[in-house]
TrEMBL record:
Annotated source species: Thermococcus eurythermalis
Coiled-coil intervals, chain numbering: none
Source organism superkingdom: Archaea
Protein name: NUDIX hydrolase
InterPro entries per record: Nudix_hydrolase (IPR020476), NUDIX_hydrolase-like_dom_sf (IPR015797), NUDIX_hydrolase_CS (IPR020084), NUDIX_hydrolase_dom (IPR000086)
Annotated Nudix hydrolase domain residues: 45-174
MF GO annotations: hydrolase activity
Keyword Isomerase: no
Keywords: Hydrolase
Length: 180
């Protein structure tokens, strides 16, 4: 049930993504950003942020779809297709968009596999992924961040060295009784 809160001032939030080396002192930058915002009648706060992503375990033609990554991290490694949720998207919309962009497939979501939040799962920084099991339909075609796209027999997919924590996601999707 959605409620309106008339006493709460509604605002738009914008994020300036600042990438700093791990452990960097951003104190001076933070203060300068606050002053710049105030100069324009705005308020600026710097918080460390978490990236939200989606990953798809796509069942297709008797196997599971894996991509070979085009970019770092894990360039040339096998991975589940996926990517970042864009502002204004639900995770389900992001999943369908990312699956289409990377594999050419339309997907039908079967179920939520899980939420993966280990702060060290992505070497670029703290990224939380919502993973889904889905059925793929259409013509397989690599695109976007995928260098190649493959259908791998289910029994073989788990034996491959996969990027990130995708081996765990794949295991959880295909053998849910073993979760937790």
């Amino acid at each position: 049930m959605r409620r309106d809160f008339p006493e709460v001032k509604k605002m738009d939030r914008y994020v300036l993504l600042v990438k700093a080396p791990k452990g960097a002192d951003i104190t001076q930058f933070r203060e300068e950003a606050k002053l710049l915002a105030e100069k324009h009648g705005l308020k600026a706060e710097l918080h460390r942020c978490i990236g939200l992503t989606v990953d798809g375990v796509i069942l297709y033609k008797g196997g599971v779809v894996l991509i070979k990554r085009k970019n770092e991290p894990f360039k040339d490694h096998y991975a589940l297709p996926g990517g970042f949720v864009e502002y204004g998207e639900t995770v389900e919309e992001a999943l369908k968009r990312e699956m289409k962009e990377e594999t050419g497939l339309d997907v039908r979501i079967l179920r939520l596999v899980g939420v993966y939040s280990d702060p060290n799962r992505d070497p670029r920084g703290h990224t939380v992924s919502v993973a889904f099991l889905c059925l793929g339909e259409g013509e397989l075609k690599a695109g976007d961040d995928a260098k190649e796209v493959h259908v791998v027999p289910i029994g073989e997919a788990g034996k491959l060295p996969l990027a990130f924590d995708h081996a765990k996601i794949l295991r959880d999707a295909l053998h849910p009784k073993d979760c937790w």
